[in-house]
Specification:
By secondary structure, the protein is α/β, with parallel strands linked by helices. It folds into four domains: 65 residues, no CATH class; 94 residues, Orthogonal Bundle (Arc Repressor Mutant, subunit A), CATH 1.10.10.10; 69 residues, no CATH class; 215 residues, Vaccinia Virus protein VP39 (Rossmann fold). It is 46% helix and 12% strand. The chain is built from 21 helices and twelve strands. The strands form three sheets. The chain has a seven-stranded mixed β-sheet with strand order 6-5-4-7-8-12-11. It has a three-stranded antiparallel β-sheet with strand order 1-3-2. A two-stranded parallel ribbon has the order 9-10. Strand 2 and strand 3 form a beta hairpin. Helix 1 runs antiparallel to helix 2 and helix 4 crosses helix 7. The longest helix has 22 residues. Bound molecules: S-adenosylmethionine (SAM).
Length: 471
């Protein structure tokens, strides 16, 4: 049998050949690492064959590196994750990416970058060189750096002058990624540093409470993270978090909801309840595509108020005709809509640990009709191992994700990390989680629901709609 390294290198060479030929046939260009990122440079990934080939190349290359590096070097790369985050945070806060964008393709000497940001040039050079070693920025000549495809992801698109003159509004009206990066380089790693202390403290070790998290320990804070953001001295972080969440939303195709369920199977006049529906972002395309459905969007009072304002601009007719209604409702209390065909919960379950998630599901089960469908939309976390043949054959539709070919990890390893990062974030700040299919199934069963299918064919690649029916 071929050795692991031979098999992995064959996956890489075969997939590179596929990628090149698909790009050539479809007149798609493959982006260069040395060039700044543009959304159009990702066009090739809309071709499923090209996207799959790129995934396999990345998964195999990362696995190959793990296989051939000396183990002390491989583990040290994991150990040193915090140094990479810290170096990147300095560059983000010092507007290095935007400074380099304005400098143009010949780059800028680190002493000029540092002078604009008023930080030490020798210290900045070391941080940037460390990042360039990991393909974030490029050192063109000794101490002269430029952006590349990866570092340019931090670009707010704003002028350096604007960024330095009004730092408080740096993320406003920018695409959300730099704000998301700022959030993930600040309160998240500071909290994560206290994960062991939280998990080993008898008070918090087994807690499911949102006030007993690593965040609470790290910041010596008694309030849940949401309430902390609303404190006057956290207004900058709150503003950044708002921009980051809009950025995450923008990553999802706006009409992803249309492929989350077979909406056309519902008879005219069926009632869909968007539980914790926010301002109705998902219900909007649904109401437009299915005017025959009645939609009730439930949330907390201030959110309902914002939602009404938004719909009066975006789709006033739906409110006027009564097709869409907003309703104040706390999902931990008895569900007022008792004739629902569908209870839809998008990105609700992952905010809550099991005792709270159980309460939400139990309340819905109490009022569900025998033919009510429950649709949960969250990330379903893949196992890092393979399903046995027997298990895969007996699983409900969609339970088993498309697995990467051997000898790759079934979940595509490090090439498919985003869902797991979401899960780590949930653990750190909420004591909540993104769940595996087995976990979801058990949670549903314990609250009177039966998992019937998972849709993996939708247009969102990190959210998988889960369907359940009353037991
Ligand atoms: C992550 S957002 C998801 C919003 C929406 N489903 C979407 O995907 O756009 C979570 C929502 O849960 C709402 N929420 C939090 N606690 C709630 C409660 N006890 N009752 C009802 N809604 C609640 C929040 O106000 C927020 O709108």
């Amino acid at each position: 049998m071929a050795s692991l390294t031979v098999e992995l290198s064959k996956i890489i060479s075969d997939s590179v050949a596929t990628l090149e030929s698909v790009c050539k046939q479809n007149n798609l260009s493959f982006p260069r690492l040395d060039e700044p990122f543009t959304p159009s440079s990702e066009a090739f990934r809309a071709n499923p064959e090209a996207a799959e080939a790129a995934n396999k190349i990345a998964a195999a290359a990362l696995q190959l590196a793990a296989a051939v590096l000396p183990p002390p070097a491989a583990i040290t790369s994991v150990i040193s994750g915090h140094f990479k985050s810290a170096a990147l945070r300095v560059c983000l806060e010092a507007n290095v990416t935007e400074i380099l964008r304005e400098a143009g393709p010949s780059g800028l000497h680190v002493r000029d970058i540092a002078a604009k940001s008023n930080i030490s040039s020798t210290k900045l050079a070391r941080l940037m060189r460390y990042l360039a070693t990991h393909h974030v920025y490029k050192e063109l000549q000794p101490d002269v750096f430029t952006n590349n495809r990866i570092s340019s992801m931090l670009d707010t698109g704003k002028s350096v002058e604007d960024l330095f003159s009004s730092p408080e509004s740096r993320y406003d009206n920018a695409h959300g990624f730099p704000a998301l990066a700022g959030h993930h380089l600040d309160e998240i790693p500071k909290s994560t540093a206290y994960l062991w202390e939280t998990l080993s403290d008898p008070v918090s070790a087994h807690s499911d409470e949102v006030t007993q998290t690593a965040f609470n320990k790290a910041f010596n804070e008694e309030l849940p993270v949401w309430a902390w953001y609303e404190k006057p001295d956290q207004s900058g972080r709150l503003r950044r978090f708002g921009s980051a969440m809009r950025g995450v939303e923008a990553l999802q195709p706006p009409d992803a909801i249309l492929s989350a369920f077979d909406w056309s199977s519902l008879p005219n006049g069926s009632v869909v309840v968007d539980v914790g529906g926010g301002v109705g972002t998902s219900s909007l395309p649904l109401a437009q595509a299915y005017p025959n459905l009645e939609i009730v969007i439930q949330d907390r009072p201030p959110v309902v108020e914002d939602g009404l304002k938004l719909w009066k601009v975006k789709l006033p007719k739906a409110l006027e005709t009564g097709q869409v209604k907003f309703q104040v409702h706390d999902f931990f209390t008895a569900q007022p809509i008792t004739n629902a065909s569908v209870y839809l919960l998008k990105q609700i379950m992952h905010d809550w640990s099991d005792p709270y998630a159980s309460k939400i599901l139990t309340e819905l089960r109490k009022t569900a009709k025998q033919d009510t469908k429950l649709v949960l939309i969250d990330t379903v976390i893949p196992f890092a191992c393979r399903y046995s043949k027997a298990e895969a054959e007996n699983a409900i539709p969609g339970a088993v994700p498309a697995e990467a070919p051997e000898p790759l990890l079934a979940n595509y390893g490090g090439a498919n990390e985003i869902g797991y990062i979401g899960d780590m974030t949930m653990l750190t700040v909420f004591n909540s989680l993104e769940r595996t299919v087995k976990h979801i199934s058990a949670l549903l069963e314990s609250t009177g629901w039966r998992l019937t299918r998972i849709r993996r064919d939708g247009s969102s690649n990190f959210l998988q709609p889960v369907e359940a029916v009353p037991i």
